[in-house]
Design brief:
Helix content is 26%, strand content 24%. The chain is built from ten helices and 19 strands. Helix 3 runs parallel beside helix 4 and helix 7 (238-252) crosses helix 8 (296-311).
Amino acid sequence: MATEVKLPRLGQGMESGTIVRWLKDEGEAVSKREPLYELDTDKVTQEVEAEADGVLLKILVREGEVEVGKTIAVIGKEGEEVSLEAVTAPATRGNGGSAAPAQRREAPAAPPEAEATAPAPAPRADGRVKASPLARRIARERGIDLTSVAGTGPDGRIIAEDVEKAQAAPARALAPAPSAEVEVVELTQTRKTIARRLTEAWQAPVFQLGVSADATELLALRERLVELLREGEAKPTVNDVLTKLVAVALVRHPAVNSTFTGDAIQRHPAAHVGIAVAAPNGLVVPVIRDADRSTVQQIATARAEVVGRAREGKLRREDLDGGTFTISNLGMYGIEQFVAVLNPPQTAILAVGAVKETPVVVDGELDVAPLVHLMLTCDHRAIDGADGAEFLQTLVALIEQPALAL
């Protein structure tokens, strides 16, 4: 019996996803757990595996945005008939395949006088133009104003083909270009998620605690680790060493290594430290798991892998899930101190500034030392001021004497 392939829910709050491309063609054999297609969600683009063995009998949606739970393909036995009437094809939000044949049909050629009066795209109630994510991406990459494109999708929605045709059409068929002084950047799924989550973060009652630490021994330890580096190994960064020290401090202060669920506080026995990374589509936070039980070299290797995937847009869902604490480091940009915004449901985040040579007084004598400023943001619903202060005390001691982390 044929198996319907439905769009899965790959994370809490996921309502839809965008099919980027199929890794199998119709008629090809498919094995269970074999990558079947690429799906773009609000966080990552990832491969989705087949849930059954057989032959890919029919692809109902070639590409575009689809709601969770909708049927996108059919897997069955070779030669098995597929009744399209029995399969409920999804109403895609983008340019689908056979599920939306009207979107693939070429529009009849308009007479010359009609070209200049092409229908304008139907805006939504909130004033935004209706367009699929793929259409928005193509328009953004090619500098096309969506307000000048007529949509042929359901309810006048702009699909990818509409954008491509608009680019090929004569200039007189397009509306006047917007002022060069105004750049409109449509929100990607990742940016929408960032906006939603940071809005949630600002609703939490937070407080900040700031300290400075002498990074002399921290920098020296990093240099010694680099000297011991073997060929092919990832070079440890200052942030890798700091990640290890933060993780050790977290397991000693479980109140800070926690998540808030709304009606409970979950205190975690292991430190899964998220590293804020600037990716092409926006800020992402891949997670270094069990950082408290890992060596600095293991952390460096894991960090190099996930940061590489983040910057290539190839992060997997498991790269982002399960974090218990986050480090945001802007020291490489010369920022000396800043306040980081919480990463819900985590209850604390550490902002790390640049290491800067600073005048200090040691035993009554003026000296210069490399100081790093740390700012801890805490969710007061889960963490009290004393908890945060004691965590920072431990962290400063570990930075100034890393051997205490052993």
